Amino acid sequence: MSTRRPPAETTPDPSTPDETQGETVDPSRRSGELTFRELLRWAWRQLTSMRTALVLLLLLALAAVPGSIIPQEGVDSLKTSQWQEEHPDLTPFYERLGLFDVYDAPWFSAIYILLMISLVGCIVPRLFVYARALRAAPPRAPRNLSRLPDSTAYTTSEDVDAVLSRARTVLRGRRYRVRAAELDDPGEGAVSSERGHLREAGNLVFHLSVLVVLVGFAIGSLFGYKGGVLLVVGQGFSNSLTQYDDFVPGDLFDADEMEPFSFTVDEFDVDWLLDGPRKGMAQGFSADLRYRERPDAEEKSYDLRVNHPLAIGDTEVFLIGHGYAPVITVRDGTGEVAYSGPTIFLPQDQGLLSFGVVKAPDARPAQIGLEGLFYPTFINVDGDPTNLMGDLNNPLLSMLVYTGDLGLDDGTPQSVYVLPKGDAEQVRNADGEPLRLDLQEGQTAELPDGLGSVTFEGVEQWNRLQISQTPGKELALGGVVLALIGLCGSLFIRPRRVWVRARRVDGETLVEIAALDRSGGGDVTAEIQAVADALRDAPAEPAAPDHHQSAAAPRSKEDS
Questions:
Q1: In whole angstroms, what is the distance from residue 154 CA to residue 145 CA?
Q2: Beta bridge mates, 270
Q3: Which side of the chain, N or C, has fewer Cβ within a 10 Å radius?
Q4: How far, in Å, CA of 497 to CA of 339, rounded?
Q5: Of residues 231 and 5, more confidently modeled
């Protein structure tokens, strides 16, 4: 019995480079301690891993949730201001977090940029790996195909060369990439084939498309703009910064790139449901526009509807809302007109019950303010006005009256939809109750104490239009289409390998066929049977010389 002496232990020389890392090992470093360069390499690997990319994509989706729940300044500043007035306790907290402008918040931009970096770091190395795989020949056939989970065999009187030639013809006809026939030993050879490389191409296209979509949105948010305007039917608009009620430009936006168009809203129609379970709801909206693409261009007309924007150059005009503007005239105590015209009231529900404010700062002997509701279809329920639906069947204007200092003379800007009542006094009737004016079309109410009168002249309609320029939208749309194509490829293309081996046994040729589904879970039995049936029936391709086949695909001992 012999024994083997254990090898002598050697102490590594600190000055000797580590062969595995290619760097000098510092004996003073603790186990697991990383240098700054190693830390950067580790951080980059973590950031560019597919797991991190998926986490960042999920975070981006979660970060966009507040933007769809909380009113956004860049989408509807009026709705945002209303929300802020209704939630005074939450507003300061939300403002600090940037929840009223989510898509321009620093934390949202950070997730966005990290996701783009992670996707680039994931995709670029995979592109090189995929390119090498495309150029590589299918792997050699295993020695014993019968050991694979799915295989079949049959015998034939044909020689090996004829079978292998026939196999190459059949596999190419079934869209396989075929390796040159291999003659392993005298009287034995094999053909290797594979298909399904487009599955990985689908994965790469899908991930590339996500990057394309992100770049498209980034271009739009940097170079584009989005603005909103409320127009009473009959009013016009020209595309200049002073005409917008709210305007959100991109960080790299250039005002000189704005299209010099103008338009006028001539008419607005609403189709109302008059019966059925949805009676009283609107089902269609249409605004008739006259527009010019340039001041000297020919005037054109367009039927503007929801989800059918007007495109003028790179700019689009969307119809996103509507409401009513009661025509109100306020005369002061001297009989002079202190306020007159259509006043935009903001809808409070789907029935277009609307809230509005009137301010008459020039009224004498005191300023007059009105605040109240507009009922498109008024009915009286126990002495209180109630709105039945949004159509103008029986309009009623119900408003409270204030007088005194309305805060309009100190130069402080204020919303036209808010009536400052801190220094104002509410007007009351003879019994001391707050005075409420309930006016139908054409009616006039006299105010007490010689303050003047209020007349409800009629009703006009207004439209809320969104005007936006989004340079990268075509790129983003192309990315979405690519994502669908790549997803279909990765779901429905199955990468498979098929081998055919032929050998002479007892004067006959034994043909073995085996297949492997590389995606896992695929049934290749039918594919094997189809190849076997085709091998028996397909015409043989002229066999290539043995020396050429052997030289094209030499075999080493390690391949056995």
A1: 13
A2: 285
A3: N
A4: 83
A5: 231
